TrEMBL record:
GO terms for biological process: regulation of transcription by RNA polymerase II. This is JmjC domain-containing protein. Residues 1-81 form the JmjC domain. It comes from the Eukaryota. The lineage of its organism: Eukaryota, Viridiplantae, Chlorophyta, core chlorophytes, Trebouxiophyceae. Its main location: nucleus. Keywords: Metal-binding, Nucleus.
Length: 128
């Protein structure tokens, strides 16, 4: 994993103060908006983002992966696995237990390997 790819760990939430500092010190601009009932939000692939729920809600997400980006998805999956292993090793060394047997923060939500296997199976079925 890249050294300064802290956003991948999902351990931090940027406040308005943090976003102002990023803009002032590094020229990084961010967007802030509120999503209301019956509104949809499209987030471009690879775009770091964070969500803060102001009320109870249900998230419905549809992930689209083009064949050209499948290798990147597998790479990200592996990076997240390594991050989880490293964090669990640090916790064990400190005599602490991980929060859950499988750390939910770093689980493969996209399921890239399963997606690729299903696409391959569908392709083979079409060839028969």
């Amino acid at each position: 994993m890249q050294r300064n790819a802290v956003w991948k760990s999902m351990d931090f939430f940027l406040t308005a103060k943090h976003r102002a500092m990023l803009k002032e010190e590094y020229g990084v601009e961010s967007w802030h908006f509120e999503q209301h009932q019956d509104e949809a939000v499209f987030i471009p692939a690879g775009c770091p983002h964070q969500v803060r729920n102001l009320k109870s809600c249900i998230k419905v997400a549809i992930d689209f992966v083009s064949p050209e980006s499948a290798s990147q998805c597998l790479e990200l999956t592996q990076e997240r696995r390594q991050l989880t292993l490293r964090e669990n090793q640090l916790l064990s060394a400190a005599g602490q237990e991980p929060d859950a047997p499988i750390d939910r923060r770093h689980s493969d939500k996209l399921q890239a390997e399963l997606m690729i296997a299903r696409a391959a199976a569908a392709s083979l079925a079409q060839l028969r």
